[in-house]
Amino acid sequence: MDADFIAQILFSAIKTGTPLLFIALGEVICEKSGVLNLGQEGMMLMGAVVGFLAAYSTGNMAFGVLAAMAMGCVMSLIFGVLVLHLGANQVATGLALTIFGTGLSAFVGSDFVGKTIQGFNPIPIPYLSSIPYLGKILFEHDLLVYLSFIMTVLIMYVANKTRLGLTLKAVGENPNAANAIGIKVLRVRYLAIMFGGAMTGIAGAYMSLVYTPMWAENMTAGRGWIALALVVFASWRVGRIMLGAYLFGLASIMHLVLQGFGWTISTNLLAMLPYVATVFVMVIISADKFKEKLLAPRSLGKPFDPRHMA
Amino acid sequence: MMRIQARTQPSQLMTLVSPLLAIALTLIFGCILFSALDKNPIEALHVLLIAPLSDGYNVGEMLVKMCPLLLCAVGLSLCYRANMWNIGAEGQLLAGALGGSAVALAFGDSTSALALPLTLLAGVASGIAWSAVPTYLKLRFNSNLILTTIMFNYIAFYLLVWAVNGPLRDPDGYGFPESAMFSDQTMLPILVAGTRIHLGILLSLLSAVVAWFILSKTHLGFQVRVFGSDEPAATYAGFSSKKLSWFVMLLAGALAGLAGVCEVTGPIGQLVPNVSPGYGYSAIIVAYLGRLHPLGAIIAAIFLAVLYMGGDLAQIQMNIPTAVVGMFQGVLLFFLLACDFFIRNRLVFTHQATA
Q: For a tag on chain A, would you pick the N or C end, based on fewer CB atoms within 10 A?
């Protein structure tokens, strides 16, 4: 174990944690507005397949990412109409979105399994990447990882320091009060849901354009669900989401770490690690019932019907 | 003019009409999709929905697919009625398949009469264990049941893949990730010669009837129903939420575990990595389509089983990817959730002149 090896591991943890970060950043905005979208896995798969198809057929990576974002938005809109306008149960609708996305992505992508593309190239940032160790860990990534850095800072700023962030919070904490002071609750929620969809679309594109880069059925392997746990783990705080995403990234590449120590454990057993870690985390953070109630957006998962307002 | 008005009482009629409406809308969606793909929509729907029921053998195969769907859906129906969001049927099914297989393989070529009962029991016990842990974590540590049960699905899958690559791999299997074939002693008896209709199918139908009996005729079932419709009333009546949660979760685990062990000792005959094409997830749709009613689940399970069969046939006969089935399932659930809007609301026609 030398410093270069540790730097390499941390570099990989960031790479692996990035799709989780994108989803969790989108979902935290969605949840702050009071909507729980459990359809992340389905939206992510759709983002992955559409991003791959678009990039494969045009040869343009950026176009692939944009297509994936658009797909995520469309998927989240279906969810939005069902839960916001038709009053459908958010949990059931989210599950439906995941089942639908899993099936549709397999259907759309069936002709593209096994095809490969060049993918995004890493772009070392001048000067910063030559900082010893830190440069290797943080500044020799691809464009999407840098985008995730920027988005984290941006969302942190918007959520905590701007009027928009306050509006979002008002809608999520007390939609009736927000409605009373003239905030269009459903409009805010639609926008929050679509923002979440677009971010999850990018996460999908990251999987099929950067991480693998190829398309395979169910390639996201539960990352959408893990990201949902991550939001709870981070108590809806943006900074902690970033930290958590990289910790989960680290758990996913534990086999590399253990190989570094010279241990050999079945890869199938090690593949369980991120899921086991998620269960552990869920237990630890939720054990304090009072604390979780205090931190969660108060109207999370509850429908809001403006017709019931006098 | 039309406008939407909230109903004072949920509509009983719409509760039953909604699934039929959703199926009809899904079929219309299918016609449009197949037309867009340059496939004859009538022919495609025929292959998807009618061909699976065209002869005795196909009906048998359909029933083979119905069995795991129904077993899982009956358990889930009770869970959802008690507000326990168990998404873990898939993992409990895989755990049942794994536990059952371990015992079946341990019996080897033994002709003991206990071989099959103990194999089934091991499957059921594994399913129970796999649902007990998330239930305990939820009740003791307040952890999110949806997320933990889903994580347990993935954990069960990798455990199964590990087992067929490790301790349970067939030593004479040329390194394929599969177990040895089970001996006849540990296989479920075939009920109709010339088909694959096995004892598990009978058990699945029986489980639906028993669950219906518990739900509608016993005090325990009454508690579950009250809990689902009016939690404060249930708490006020002194019903123990913990006890009910344990009951529905362990029952669901047992049934899903039984589904898993019936797959490996029935149609498959050995442990393979792809025991289930997502039966545990499809069972969620079955449960909703069957209106969270055990007997409704029978009809819904048959419908989804037909769709699964039809998907296989459509792949062979019309070169339509099997994945179309998963998509149809999602669309169906969307339409169902949308149609359920009219259980709580109705369209009112108002005359402009009088307005």
A: C
CATH of the domain at A11: 1.10.3470
The whole-angstrom separation of Cα B40 and Cα B30 is 11
Q: One-letter amino acid identity for A228?
A: L
Q: Distance, in angstroms, between A130 CA and closest chain B CA?
A: 40
Task: List chain A residues with CB under 8 Å of B324.
Answer: 103, 107
* Chain B residue with the nearest C-alpha to that of A82: B338
For chain B, what percentages of helix, strand and coil (3-state, to nearest 5) are there? 70, 5, 25
Q: How many domains does chain A have?
A: 1
DSSP string, A157-223: HHHHHSHHHHHHHHHHH-HHHHHHTT--HHHHHHHHHHHHHHHHHHHHHIIIIIIS-B--TTTTTTH
3-class secondary structure, B4: strand
Report the distance separating Cα A4 and Cα B260, nearest Å: 47
- Residue B355 above 50 pLDDT? no
Q: What is the ipTM of this complex?
A: 0.89
Angle at B86 between CA B337 and CA A289, to 5 degrees: 105
The rounded distance, in Å, linking the Cα atoms of A4 and B194 is 65
Nearest CA-CA partner of B153 in A200, A98, A276: A276
Q: What is the reported pLDDT for B34? A: 87
Answer whether residue A293 shows pLDDT above 70.
no
In total, chain A counts a number of residues equal to 310
Quick check: A269 pLDDT over 90?
Answer: no
Question: What's chain B's Rg over C-alpha atoms?
Answer: 22
What's the average model confidence in pLDDT over B3-16? Answer: 83
Contacts of A91 in chain B (CB under 8 A): 85, 146
Domain ranges of chain B: 66-214+240-301
Arithmetic mean of pLDDT, B270-290 = 93
Write out chain A residues lying below 8 Å of B166, CB-based.
266, 268
Instruction: Give per-residue pLDDT as tens, B69-123.
Output: 999 999 999 999 998 999 999 999 999 999 999 999 999 888 888 899 999 999 9
Q: What is the 3-state secondary structure (H, E, C) of A276-295?
A: HHHHHHHHHHHCCHHHHHHH
